[in-house]
Amino acid sequence: MNAVVEPAAFARTRRLVVKTGSALIVDDAGGIRADWLDGLADDIANLKARGIDAIVVTSGAVAVGRWKLGYGKRELKIEEKQAAAATGQVWLAHAWIKALAARGIVGAQVLLTPEDTESRRRHLNARATVATLLEAGAVPVINENDTTATEEIRFGDNDRLAARVAQMASADTLILLSDIDGLYTADPHRDPSARHLPEVGELTPDILAMAGEARPGYSSGGMVTKLGAARIALGAGCRMAIASGKVQRPLSAIEAGGRCTWFMPQGSPASARKRWIAGTVEPAGSVVIDDGAVRALERGTSLLPAGIVAVEGVFDRGDAIRVRDRSGREIARGLSAYASADVKRIMGRRSSEIEDILGFRGRDEIIHRDDLAMTNAS
Ligand code: GLU
Question: Is 221 close to ligand 1, i.e. is its CB under 6 Å away?
Answer without folding.
Answer: yes
